Amino acid sequence: MAEKNIFEEIKSFINDYGNYFTFTAALKEKGKNYKMPEVIADVNSGNPKSVDAPDVKKDNLNYLQDIVVNNCVKCRLSEKRKNIVFGEGSPDCRLMFIGEAPGADEDDTGRPFVGRAGQLLTKIIESINLKREDVYIANVIKCRPPGNRTPSDDEIECCSGYLREQVRIIKPRIICTLGKVPMEYIVGKDKGIISRVRGNEYKYEGIPVIPTYHPSYLLRNPSAKREVWEDMKKIRDSYL
Ligand code: SF4
To answer: Which of 49, 99, 106, 235 is the most buried (most CB within 10 A)?
Structure first.
């Protein structure tokens, strides 16, 4: 029953963002060979297979990235971006990190968390005996806000549907939000400031969420690493 709901959701998502066949025809014209994600094919045939198979998750993330997100001009952040930073990692991960938005290094490369803060995040991941490629890393906002300013509420509202769809496809066991913006979006602004909220458990799309500090904050405030380590231990011991 739960699977049926998600097929319906994906179907309406496709309807919201455009016709699948129009997009694939356009891609073929450009010489890009695109494989129809199995879940989409199965929705069309009325004979759905498991959306939890790792190859189906991978196809659906590729679909979301290539067909829906990669040409997005839904908000003003499209004007100055160099690259859309969709997210990267294992589509079948247990742990998903959610940050705020790309910075300059991420905008240059199209990859999330590759600057100094990203290197620290890699160390944090390794501290719980995982590799970076074992987890999935994405941001609430996919294009860099000019000057690394905080994204506005309307930009978050415009872009956050993509993140929600990533979470629905990946279905991690646990989500860890990094910093204030993703904490407020996922957990709610009414829950309090991040120093009170971090380390507690919440839910998003039915998935447990534990907020912690952003690695950039740790670069400025190394003493907060101890609290992040506590949060990581909790994630490791309870969900991995
Ligand atoms: S920030 Fe999100 S909604 Fe805005 S243009 Fe980029 S991908 Fe589209």
So the answer is: 99
Strands 95-99 and 88-89: unpaired
DSSP letters spanning 81-150: -SS----EE-TT-SEEEEES---HHHHHHT-SS-SHHHHHHHHHHHHTT--GGGSEEEES-SSPPGGGPP
User: Tens digit of pLDDT for each residue in 85-132?
Assistant: 999 999 999 999 999 999 999 999 999 999 999 999 999 999 999 999
Predicted model pTM: 0.83
pLDDT tens digits, one per residue of 170-188 = 999 999 999 999 999 999 9
* pLDDT at position 118: 97
Mutate to test the pocket of ligand 1, among 65, 68, 71, 77 (most ligand atoms within 8 A of CB): 77
| Listed residue (21, 22, 54) closest to 38, CA to CA | 54
Domains identified in the chain and CATH numbers? 2-69 (no CATH), 87-239 (3.40.470.10)
Strands 202-204 and 207-212: antiparallel
Query: Dihedral of CA 55/59/61/65: which sign?
Result: positive
Report whether residue 73 contacts ligand 1, using a CB cutoff of 6 Å.
Answer: yes
- Ligand 1 within 6 A of CB of 84: yes
- Is 187 near ligand 1, meaning CB less than 6 Å away? no
Q: Which one is predicted more confidently, 231 or 70? A: 231
Expressed in angstroms and rounded, the spacing between residue 31 Cα and the centre of ligand 1 is: 25
